[in-house]
Amino acid sequence: MSHFLDRLTHFTLPKEAFSGNHGLTTNEDRTWEDAYRNRWAHDKIVRSTHGVNCTGSCSWKIYVKGGIVTWETQQTDYPRTRWDMPNHEPRGCARGASYSWYLYSANRVKYPMVRGRLLERWRAALKVSKTPVDAWALIQQDANARRDYQQVRGMGGFVRSTWDEVNQLIAAANVYTIKQHGADRIIGFSPIPAMSMVSYAAGSRYLSLIGGVCMSFYDWYCDLPPASPQVWGEQTDVPESADWYNSSFIIAWGSNVPQTRTPDAHFFTEVRYKGTKTVAVTPDYSEVAKLSDLWLHPKQGTDAALAMAMGHVALKEFYFPDGGKARSSYFDDYARRYTDLPLLVMLTEHTLPDGTVTMVPGRYLRASDFNGQLGQKSNPEWKTVAFDTDGKAVLPNGSIGFRWGEAGREDEGKWNLEAKEARGNTDVKLKLSVIEDGEQETQVVDVGFPYFGGNATPHFTANAQHGEINHAKVPAVRLRLGKAGDERYALVATVFDLQVAQYGIDRGLGSGAKSFDDNAAYTPAWQESITGVPRDQVITVARQFADNADKTHGKSMVIIGAAMNHWYHADMNYRGVINLLMMCGCIGQSGGGWAHYVGQEKLRPQTGWVPLAFATDWLRPPRQMNSTSFFYAHTDQWRYEKLGMEEIVSPTLSAADKAAFSGSMIDFNVRAERMGWLPSAPQLKTNPMQVVKDAQAAGLDAKDYVVQALKDGTLEMSCEDPDAPQNWPRNMFVWRSNLLGSSGKGHEYFCKHLLGTENGVQGKDLGKDDAKPAEVKWHPNGPQGKLDLLVTLDFRMSTTCLYSDIVLPTASWYEKNDLNTSDMHPFIHPLSAAVDPVWQSRSDWEIYKGFAKTFSEVCVGHLGVEKEVVLSPIMHDTPGEMAQAFEVKEWKKGHCELIPGKTAPQIAVVERDYPNTFKRFTALGPLLDKLGNGGKGIGWKTGTEVEQLGQLNGKTLDEGVSQGMPKIVTDIDACEVILQLAPETNGHVAVKAWQALGKQTGRDHTHLALYREDEKIRFRDIQAQPRKIISSPTWSGIESETVSYNAGYTNVHEYIPWRTLTGRQQFYQDHPWMIAFGEGFGSYRPPVDLKTTEGIHNIKPNGNKEIQLNFITPHQKWGIHSTYSDNLMMLTLNRGGTVIWLSEDDAKSAGIVDNDWVELFNINGAVAARAVVSQRVNPGMVMMYHSQEKIINTPGSEITGVRGGIHNSVTRIVLKPTHMIGGYAQLSYGFNYYGTIGTNRDEFVVVRKMDKVDWLDTPADDHLIRAYQSEGENP
User: pLDDT value at position 1265?
Assistant: First the structure.
């Protein structure tokens, strides 16, 4: 309403003076203030968070007005930390504060969308088919019809559909695929369940019930550091961020804390006020460098050299100090009790290809090597041996052989780290070196260690020493081994003596560096020529780091980030750092240790979530696959492989072994799958339902039939012929992920071979002239378009959506109920539905529940109760991890028999009730009540919890398979299942879990949870306030009001062994493949030469100079992965599109100035972006922050002629054989625990200024035009 009259009378309003005319009272209209009041008015505030895999796991207040989310602010009611520490709050960042923009933006997916060409054919096929399954068959059996919609993937052309229509199409595709090819051709990819557990579980439960394959993510994202399973038998466990405040010395190594750990960065700055020293180690001048006392900037990819040099300093000054000083007593005691340094390793003689003979470290000495097996009847091959201080061979508790066996066995309860001799349960002190403590007869042996620092590569400086083998003097003892009548003698040395020799420490034995200034392997002077870091800085930092750890008993910490893990030899980078931490006694000590932060990997209520997620309440085992190997095979990147395995093997291999370890990397992957080391998907060339029928026809048990058929060749594993149509993945679901826009290494190969659409691949495959893999069938022409159907669920139109056949609108993080945890803090808290899902979006739980319902209806007449064969790898944390103790024997090559679960995959027959898929999806199955639950090698009964869930959620009343079982109808029901079953959220279960572990260790651990036994956290509890979880044996730290969570704490303080071969932290890895590839001990290995710029550099010039740079993809400031990269608020704060960063020197040499359009390319593809020229970038590298969508401001590429690509357009998957090892203690497969990882930083690209910028905004040909023409309603 107008205030015109008020303005006219403003100066005539009555006024009343007071206080002697010093004050004046007026009567004015203040309605103008309502505009400000209404701006911040709201109807309610709801607690939720962002499921974006950022690790922040921040609780937010969501403000709702008139049924619309208006804005969000940070919650500030986390439970308080103890009095002497800062609180976790406030948590949040600018990215999270902008999320509500998405809900009502043009980017929001509002309706079910289908590719127009596909929908047109689907509707036509339905009119002439009896059933939806027949209609889908009609399309798939017509090659032209299939190619018609495949070739326009990524080119728009979506039309609006309905939920009923898409559910029917998807169900028909799934049923047809199961019937025609097998359920293991149906694939599902979704990452990081901790960020929204129920949303993940919705899809994985559906897939597991129908027999589909759930793909791994932690390894594929390259978040998995293989060094963690190798050293500790643990996927990843790290301190909460509050424990930084307990540290006295912190190195931030490759972790840009303020940028990528924004909610937790305050701990990093606050601890400096206590006097804690902070050091940043990054190749670029990053945000964390500004917060640190010292910045070390090694050349990218050379971190292991720097870490090894620091280890050299710590060993020399604190284990072998000059001037008659004593060794650190703390370090000495820690090394004896908690590491493998005292354990004995056998030395073996190798004849090298040049005819010379050298001794090399072999395998650990075992009880089975002795006459009488040291009195061990149970698993003597898996029990490691040491010397006591008197030089007597002893059997310490804790090795893996004590973990597994029959109940009631003699050594039950000795899987612990008590300083005891297992045979007599007497106290024992282990000997670190054979020339220390009590005297014994020794001899000094010349031992050869592989040395890779002298390997010349085009872009990295080598430091040649005395050839590829570094010889060092090692004290050893000669032992008589073997049974009576079959005796043999062997030289043995402790891991400590070998490790010290490898580091080049001078002990007066005739080898080693005389000073830190010697240019000898692993000295500070040696690393200087490789990393560029001044030796004095290395000596100072290492000395202070170790000195602090010595004085504080381990309160020195390394915060380490994904940057270190994205190199081909990632495990060498990490083991160099971990070695330093172990020798300084930092692991398991509050304020110290290894703090690896990547994705939001910590699914705290894990054991409660697994039965829901993988339907193990109904069926076991589920199908799971490691994504890296899967995508390498099925995007045909192996067809372009240029890195030969002979390039990376150990120089200490004999001539015969060198030939055995040469060839193609996919050959090693196939061998690993055949031996049961890695999973397979698809598994067998024959439909797994048909295999059961064939076994019945042959009158054989299905397991026996598979063994026989694999041996005689009538049954083949799919991995041996991934390009055969019978072995293609057919249907794929992607949810909670932007696979093609964020994590898809080798993006252009995905487009070409998996999707069959336009791509920018520049290189040729191996063709007819290059050497081919030996274990894989070669097809002259690589297939294009393996997937029949790609379905993506998302709240925004991402790159993956653009390439999909069906895009489904899922609820945003403010529109659904779910659970969220992180490794950065100890709380569990919710995602909550502040408003109903907008437009036609649905929560993931409702979407997959809809699939299950329609599938149950559509499958009738095609699928009933069916049996199928399921192959599973040999798993970590099961007795199967004791498969082959010494040699690697392959049944395919006639070395041994095919024994499922020992020399080959485990074989099971699973019965699936397809018409009752929906009933099973929405009820908790009978197996939890019957078999119980568990995780990480222990189990407990769950009958009480199942009964209580029935009371809480209600029981199913409908007749059928699920009658009387607890309901899981809604997303909140699913949340309650997780919370009720998990020891982390149910104190009664926690006590049972600790009791179960106590049976293995022989110790009582229940005191860690007894004081919270009666506590049960419900969904309504966490909606009121985040709740601190309960201590659980699933994890290696404790939740306490006096101790911040720190990984390894229970190993050190509760004497629970690490889940490794030795039960200890391992400096040494003795598996034959680890030794063959030169990685028994950690060392520096330079980046590998992937040869991706050969054949394209200066081949297609555009008139501008071309330079070659190392391609690096750090995490960005304006997005979390690809989320927020298309958010208008974040785009406004940065340059608003794809950019790359390069140094001033490199830019000048190529004639590039800031904001120029540039092109990056190699044989994998190309990227077009603007250049940011910056002083903070080291010459020789170019950075493209992960992950910028190519749908924002991206022109065409001059060299490919198509859209300028995404950061992964110039990368490609490269596998490492040591990550394929299985069936060997900690080196055994586990879903997201161990396996091949998706590295990408060894890549090089050609960079040049673009001559012409083409936005490709007109259709190129008729097939593109028709992509937009189809039946259906355009949105």
Answer: 52
Confidence bin at 363 (pLDDT 50/70/90): very high
d(CA 391, CA 872): 44
Asked whether the bond before 611 is cis by omega within 30 degrees of 0, the reply is no
Confidence of residue 1260 (pLDDT cuts 50, 70, 90): low
Question: How many percent of the chain have pLDDT more than 90?
Answer: 92
Nearest CA to 160 out of 207, 222, 116, 96 is that of 116
Q: Is the pLDDT of residue 575 over 50?
A: yes
Query: Quick check: 1076 and 570 in contact, CB under 8 A?
Result: no
What is 1171-1234 written as a DSSP string?
Answer: EEEETTSPTTEEE--B---TTSS--B-TTTSSB---GGGG------GGGG--SBTTBSBBTTTB
SS3 31: helix
Q: Which 8-state DSSP code applies to residue 290?
A: H
Contact between 819 and 605 (Cβ < 8 Å): yes
> What is the band of 731 on the pLDDT scale with cuts at 50, 70, 90?
very high
Please, what is the average pLDDT of the chain?
Answer: 96
Helices (H), 534-626: 535-552, 570-583, 606-613
Nearest to 982 by CA among 608, 628, 537, 636: 608
Q: What stretch of H or E contains 923? A: none
First CA to last CA across the chain, in angstroms? 38
For residue 746, is it left (φ>0), alpha (ψ between -120 and 50) or beta? left
Distance CA(580)–CA(601), nearest Å, equals: 25
Residue 558 C-beta-side C-alpha neighbours within 13 Å? 29
The one-letter code for the residue type at 125 is: A
Domains and their CATH numbers in the chain: 4-101 (2.20.25.90), 113-223+607-687+695-865 (3.40.50.12770), 237-320+518-597 (3.40.228.10), 340-504 (no CATH), 1107-1211+1243-1264 (2.40.40.20)
Q: How many other CB atoms sit within 10 Å of the CB of residue 124? A: 15
User: Which two structure tokens, joined as six digits, stand for 968?
Assistant: 């899981």
Determine how many CB atoms are found less than 10 A away from the CB of residue 452: 21
Q: Is the predicted pLDDT of residue 580 greater than 60, yes or no?
A: yes
Check if the beta carbon of residue 1167 is closer than 8 Å to that of residue 1159: yes
Q: What is the mean pLDDT of residues 22-33?
A: 84
- The tens digit of pLDDT for each residue in 883-916 reads 999 999 999 999 999 999 999 999 999 999 999 9
d(CA 980, CA 985): 7
- Torsion, Cα 525 527 529 531, to 10 degrees, reads -140
Specify the pTM.
Answer: 0.97
Quote the CA–CA distance of 1216 and 1077 in Å, as a whole number. 10
Q: What is the pLDDT of residue 24?
A: 85
Q: Taking a C-beta distance cutoff of 8 angstroms, is the pair 1122, 1219 a contact? A: no
As a whole number of angstroms, the distance between CA 691 and CA 1173 comes to: 60
Helices marked H in 363-430: none
Per-residue pLDDT tens digits for 610-645:
999 999 999 999 999 999 999 999 999 999 999 999
Q: How confident is the model at residue 1270 (pLDDT cuts 50, 70, 90)?
A: very low
1187 preceded by cis ω (within 30°)?
yes
- What are the structure tokens assigned to 535, written together? 């030796």
Q: Which residue type, as a one-letter code, is found at position 302?
A: T
Query: Do residues 1138 and 737 lie in contact, with contact meaning Cβ atoms separated by under 8 Å?
Result: no
CB half-sphere exposure, 205, CA atoms < 13 A: 37
| Nearest-5° Cα angle at 183, 179 to 185 | 105
The 10 Å Cβ neighbour count of residue 5 is 8
Whether the CB-CB separation of 227 and 871 falls below 8 Å is answered with no
| 245 neighbors 213 (Cβ within 8 angstroms) | no
pLDDT at position 31 over 50:
yes
Q: Before 90, cis peptide (omega within 30)?
A: yes
